[in-house]
Amino acid sequence: MIYRETGQFRTSYAEDQAIFRLRQDKIGIAVILAIAWIGIPFFADEYLLRAILVPFLILAIAAIGLNLLLGYCGQISLGTGAFMAIGAYAAYNLALRLPALPLLLDFLLAGLIAAAVGVVFGLPSLRIKGLYLAVATLAAQFFADWAFLRLPWFTNYTPSGSVTAPPLDFFGWVADTPREKYFVCLAFACLTALLAKNLVRSRIGRSWMAIRDMDIAAEIIGIRPMTAKLSAFAVSSFVAGGAGVLWAFVHLGSWEPLAFSIDMSFRLLFMVIIGGMGSILGSFLGAAFITVLPIFLNQAPGLVGIQLSTAMVSHLEFMIFGSLIVLFLIWEPHGLARLWQIGKEKMRLWPFPY
Amino acid sequence: MKLKSLALAGAALLSLVAVGPGVAADTIFYPHLVYRSGAYAPNGIPFANGVADYVAMINARDGGVNGVRIELEECETGYATDRGVECYERLKTKGAGAIAFSPLSTGITFALTEKVPIDKIPLQTMGYGRSESADGRVFAWNFPLLGTYWSAADILIQHVAKISGGLRGKKITLVYHDSPYGKEPIPVLQDHAQKHGYTFEAIPVTHPGVEQKAAWLKIRQTRPDFVFLWGWGVMNSTAIKEAVAVGYPRDKMYGVWWAAAEPDVRPAGDDAKGYQGLALHPAGADYPVHKDILKYVYDAGKGSGKREEVGEVLYNRGMIDAMLKLEAVRTAQKLTGKKVVVGEDVRLGYENLELNAERIKDLGFEGLVTPLKITCADHEGARKARIHQWDGQKWVFVSDWIEADINYLRPKVEAAAAAYAKEKGITPRSC
């Protein structure tokens, strides 16, 4: 009853092409944005901002990056952590070696460097598909792990191999409080989501989806697989690289290659699969599920006043989290985004379902 | 239906967040980052138990520090840096405010080093952490008490040089955990190689360290005179088993003080006999402080571990870690006149911390810790260790206290700290 399109007519092409065509959706997204930009910064405490929301937003960006590649173009990648690492170390080295460049330009160039490396490691996708490609992209992961551990130039010859990020100075505005850092991440997340959403509705995004659905058919109707696949790798690595920069500079501040290990690649893959492949909203939902839920499970016994030993809590966290992943995949193999879609359809019929 | 139940479950979970128990404000809040699960749990558990039991004993016996009760809260990090940062954020403002953090992980230490000056909470890294943070003029909030990895490397080199009568032409191989922790000693070992004339090789082992066949095959080929082991968790016991497999003599192997405890040697069984390592302090449960712990904590049924594990190497280390932190609190109480102290006060306490032989005896730690004195410039306090050897049942001392050469290390510490200060734009304090 509440959520239906009756009476809303679209009278121009611009209206017809809008991202959110329904009035209810427009109100919904406006409310969400208002909460994110105005509500949360006012009411959230430092813990929520620094330990939950900032990592959530950054990993959501990375998940969008992987979703473009996996969900929209159908190319499985296990190298997202590597592209994040490349972005992070590229930005670190640019800031260190070319101090004249503004930090924002460092971020952009770091993303471009990650994109270039992504294209190189995307080359095998022209010949191999599916699980074989996943194994080939593992090479990117191992290469990055090796390079940042073994080539001391990348870490500026620090004895411990751990590097620290410079202050976040954006043209004289230094983001150092948790709230400012949150705004930086939120701005990047909104921008990435908007760009990604528009990209997948454009010619290039449609060519990715054509390749995903059937590459031979796509080739026959005139889509060049090389351009489509490599552009997907480039865009995906660019976004992942940007997320890596934020993870290193904004969230950790000081990091070692282990921060971008294969664990990170797997976590991002799970985010995309659980959140929903081929859905921008799904990237956010998946990131929330994978990053926030374990932390919540870890605190839940204490919050309801049950006193358990630390070891017990941590084992429970693993068990519940693992079984939730399994359960979600059984209930809804298409991810959390699909659940939301079903919910929308039900709301449309409510209260008179048939 | 499914959706409805899901939505209900979600709402129920969210409603839980609203309620939460509070911490009383007239207690000192002692946050503790632990790992009781994961690949490093065998070593993390005894340490965490040592801390928890000592704090429980102080609460039960003295009613806290100078009568102020201590509220201990653990947070599981699993040795992962991002979870460690999350735990730190979670606990730093709880209760009256955190007194100090000890992450027991070099990776988390590096990440927190950037955060503690802003939050004004000291970071106590007893026997680990950044070596250059011994320079308190730059690292005002870091306290690598009792010895850094550079001190450890120097002590080991002194010891092997003494027993083999000079190191010229010898070969030393370092098998290290491929993380900031394992890489810390490399600069000192390399520098010593030039001074003493030995050949130095460093072989990395990837986290978590269960796969080290390649490293030990290399050792079988090169046959170094000594192998130094900078491992943690399952990596240590795996290394000893691999040494057995390639026939490398265990008594030529030296572990750092984090690679010389019971969980490291026991899994290898009899084969571990002869393995040696650095000891910051002795093992054993026959010190006065243990009697109090057994009496006030274990006899009351409140022990956090098994009774027979009291007095293991890492248990004792956890106990000492907690004792030093609470002594800093006590010093802070004296200096500020406040009963409930927070991070900023405790930092003052650390910088004026002095434990002489008499005070150590009063605390029941006689023979367990060396006297130490922290100053504004020197945050390490003491840099002594002994070598102990596993005889199949227990650790036996095979050397006297060896002190790291401060005249050799201090310029290196100061140079590295100055480089850090320059990078971060810190003006070193004048002490």
Give an overview of the whole structure.
The complex is a heterodimer of chains A (354) and B (431). Chain A is mostly helical. In chain A, strand 2 and strand 3 (173-174) form a beta hairpin. Helices cover 71% and strands 2% of the residues of chain A. Chain A folds into 2 domains: 61-265, no CATH class; 276-354. Chain A is built from 14 helices and 4 strands. Chain A has a two-stranded antiparallel sheet. Chain A has a two-stranded antiparallel sheet with strand order 2-3. In chain A, helix 4 packs antiparallel against helix 5 and helix 12 (280-303) runs antiparallel to helix 13 (310-331). Chain B contains 16 helices and 14 strands. Chain B starts with a helix and ends in a 7-residue tail after the last helix. Chain B folds into 2 domains: 28-147 and 283-382 and 407-424, 3-Layer(aba) Sandwich (Rossmann fold), CATH 3.40.50.2300; 150-279, Response regulator (Rossmann fold, 3-Layer(aba) Sandwich), CATH 3.40.50. With 431 residues, chain B is of the alpha/beta class. The longest helix of chain B has 24 residues, at 313-336. Chain B has helices at residues 2-18, 41-62, 81-91, 106-113, 116-119, 149-163, 180-183, 186-196, 213-222, 234-246, 262-265, 288-298, 313-336, 343-351, 357-363, 406-424, and strands at 28-34, 70-76, 123-124, 142-143, 171-177, 199-205, 226-230, 253-255, 276-279, 354-355, 372-373, 384-390, 395-397, 402-403. The chains are: A mainly alpha (354), B alpha/beta (431). At the A-B interface, helix 3, strand 4, helix 12, helix 13 and helix 14 of A face helix 1, helix 2, strand 2, helix 3 and helix 4 of B.
How would you summarize this macromolecular structure in one to three sentences?
Helix content of chain A is 71%, strand content 2%. By secondary structure, chain A is mostly helical.
Number of strands of chain B: 14
How would you classify the quaternary structure? heterodimer
Sheet-strand content of chain A, in percent, reads under 5%
N/C terminus separation of chain A: 13 Å
User: Helicity level of chain B, as a percent range?
Assistant: 40-55%
Distance between the termini of chain B: 69 Å
- Tally of helical runs of chain B: 16
Biggest protein-protein contact in the assembly: A-B, 46 and 50 residues
Domains counted in the coordinates of chain B: how many?
A: 2
